[in-house]
Amino acid sequence: MSSGFDNESFQQLLNTVDRFVKKRLMPLERQVEEVDDVPDDVIAEMREMGLFGLTIPQEYGGFELDLMQEMKVQMAFSETSPAFRLVFWPNVGIGSRGIVLFGTEEQKRRYLPRMATGELPTSFCLTEPGTGSDAANITTSARRDGDHFVINGAKRFITNASRAEVFTVMARTDPNEKGPKGITAFIVERGTTGLFVGKKERKMGQRGSPICDVTFDNLRIPAENIIGGPPNEGKGFKIAMSVLDGGRVSVAASAVGMAKRLIDEATRYATQRVQFGEPIANFQLIQAMLADSETDYLASHALTTRAAEALERSEDARTLAAAAKYFSSEALGRIADRAVQIHGGSGYVADYPVERLYRDARGVRIYEGTSQILQLVIARTMLKRYEE
Known about the structure:
The chain has 388 residues and is of the alpha+beta class. The protein has helices spanning 7-25, 29-35, 40-49, 67-77, 82-92, 97-102, 105-117, 236-272, 284-312, 318-343, 353-362, 371-387; strands spanning 122-125, 141-145, 148-159, 166-172, 183-189, 195-197, 211-222, 274-275, 278-279. It folds into 3 domains: 7-120, Butyryl-Coa Dehydrogenase, subunit A, domain 1 (Orthogonal Bundle), CATH 1.10.540; 123-234, Butyryl-CoA Dehydrogenase, subunit A, domain 2; 238-387, Butyryl-CoA Dehydrogenase, subunit A, domain 3 (Up-down Bundle). It contains 12 helices and 9 strands. A hairpin with a 2-residue loop joins strand 2 (141-145) and strand 3 (148-159).
């Protein structure tokens, strides 16, 4: 997809984002951590900046950034608490991408302009209580009833569900098909009878970004709510995987941004903390941890960029996306651990940001595919090469 922003305009946007992150958001990190929510006035500012529509095509009111530009914004925003980015990022990524890529023209005109302004926050409903990594075997059902479908089932740990006005819901429309066949992607609006959003879960980290269960009790919607219309019945898993390939690269970019913040915090602390009469940055074992962290960061950045370039060229990037997310999230965990170690006892208390950053980093190795699932994705592609 070509970008609606030339290089100069995009650099201005990136500079604005960088100032917003450092001057406006970072000072609010502790408040968001304590109250477990992002202030309404900050969300309003995000809407005014157009952040909800970063990747939505210009004809529908968005900025239409290309994937490489999207990744750079993702990295910049990930230097602060994930809660801020996750206010609007579902509209940029998994919450809108299915409609952008596969929606009918009527669906695009109905939803995308209001998604771009932030009037319609979004969520992506795939994970279930019994099917997390095994996403192809979802059990949420959508039974055809004339020109409508009746949806029953439950989704688990849905990001932004408490804020969302529009949900992309994966449900099985053919009970006789197992695995990825027979799954259909639906657009479900908040307020539809039979839609229930559960309580916000208390999480180890990433506070201020709500996740909730979403349940469907005889929820009735027209067949026109299938993404792409009735001809796309049974093609939901293909839609989900197309969305998630971009989602995995997006998470990798987030890990890169989080890693940069952790390295900044650890390095600044090491240059200021004095022991044995000199800054601990002068000690070789501290330097070794800093060097390892910088190397992990640079490798993550390079692999994530390579995966994004492949997706931008519409190549088969499933393995690259999996590798980028796997390596970057694991590298982030190592960097977070070293940052706490460099801080010593101070890193274990909440007076310093690394205590929160350490907890925030842990979840990245789980969502959008656990490290173990991604290892399987990568290995299976490798083995197919040797079967030929």
